[in-house]
Amino acid sequence: MSPTERNVTAKWPGFTTDLLRGDGEHADRVSFLELFFDLVFVFAVTQISHTLVHSIDDGHALDGGLQAAVIILAVWWVWVYTAWVTNWLDPDKAAVRWMLIILMVLGLLMSTSIPEAFGDRALLFVSAYVAMQVGRAIFTILSMVRFVPENALNVTRLTIWFCVSAIFWFWGALTEDLTARLVLWGVAIVIEYLGPVSRYWVPGLRSSYIGGIPIRGGHMSERAGLFVIIAIGESVLVTGTAFADHPIDLPNTLAFFASITGSILLWLLYFSRAESGGSRFIRRHSNPSLVAANSYTYLHVVLVAGIVVIAVADELVLAHPIDAPRQLTLALVYGAPALYLIGNLVFKKSIGAPWLKSHLAGVGILVIFGAVVLLSGLQLPALVHSWIANVVLIAVVIGEEIDFRRERSRLRSLR
Question: Rounded to whole angstroms, how far apart are CA atoms 152 and 386?
Fold first, then answer.
């Protein structure tokens, strides 16, 4: 809807300048400021993976894993909601630009607090997180209320849900018991993730109608793809840093190439077909907002979690490439790629692809082979396991490409 076609409701308080995106030629364009904003989350993902590695090295893998899961879900949630807002609002408008810059500063405070989020910086982490979620939502309401009041009401419901979850965030930050903090923050995460499912139901305000929320498919798919690149970039950073800190010998070199090969395969699995397919599917779908909510808001967090855990596995292997890995390292080496494949499989299904046999087979092989290795106690160098996982991913990439070309040939023969 163009600015001239919008029904301006003057009686409502809010910005008098129209901050909404137009429908012109570049309506789907990702702005440079959005890319600048993403730099904070490069740091956030790095902090999460390194913190998890330290927890594993200190013998607190279970606690560290649960804490990392909460942090990953929170970081993804604050990023993806910002992506939704910049899908609606124009980042080239001065007010939106300043909103993103303020969010960047808050995001940096949140990211620096991640290693001590379950320690001395819990309150700083929560304060920055809640300020980003609630502050951005209030800004969005003020931007929409005069021009698209129904969408402003939708965001109002969302804001109320964030305020409810904030109670549990601050309650957890103020308690000294780490188990209680984990539970309370887990409750906050559950509340926030249930919001879209319940259509942000609020007594007296009914539920939101997600089909009424405008969505620009090209922009949303590109934003999600950029976050996937951010997460994969963490694997590259881990690889480069570890290789720079170790002697250049055959085991370290093989471990280096195993890690970088894995990063390339992660990129191929997502960007060779899925990223562009998602944009096209949203444009054709009768309810693009619903597709975006399912495919990009929820399913992508599985992909991101898989990439982060793969980076952790790479760092553990690079530290001791020729030693027989611990059981936990083995589980990560085979389990993390399986998680990433599951995320790809379900995401591709959500944007119109069939259940991909290559991905299903890859998940099965990784899980079964990993279980056999764990149960048998087979002693092989850690880098060998990394290469075995890579070979499975290579087979999946090739299998998907073969299936795609067969399907394309079949469709051509029907014309």
Answer: 49
Most confident of 19-33, 227-241, 323-337: 323-337
> Higher pLDDT residue, 278 or 270?
270
Q: Residue 211: what pLDDT?
A: 52
Cβ-based neighbours of 55, under 8 Å, separated by 6 or more: 61, 63, 64, 65, 67, 68
User: Would you state the torsion angle of the CA atoms of residues 298, 179, 61, 319, taken in this order, to the nearest 10 degrees?
Assistant: 90
- Residue 20: beta bridge partners? 89
202: which DSSP letter?
Answer: B
Q: Which of 265, 298, 268, 296 is nearest to 281 (CA)?
A: 296
Any idea which residue has 């619903």 for tokens? 290
Give the SS3 label for residue 298: helix
CA max distance for the chain: 73
- Cβ atoms of residues 129 and 168 within 8 Å: no
Considering only CA atoms, give the Rg of the chain.
Answer: 22
The answer, yes or no, to whether residue 103 has pLDDT greater than 70, is yes
Within 10 angstroms of residue 388's Cβ, the number of other Cβ atoms is: 18
Helices 32-57, 94-112: crossing angle, 10 deg rounding: 10
Q: Which residues of 5-18 are buried (b: 16+ CB within 10 A; e: fewer)?
A: eeeeeeeeebbeeb
> Would you give the DSSP letter of residue 247?
-
**Residue 350 · residue 295 · CB < 8 Å:** yes
Choose the weakest-confidence range: 61-75, 273-287, 309-323, 342-356: 273-287
Question: How many whole angstroms separate alpha carbon 296 and alpha carbon 220?
Answer: 8
pLDDT for 3: 45
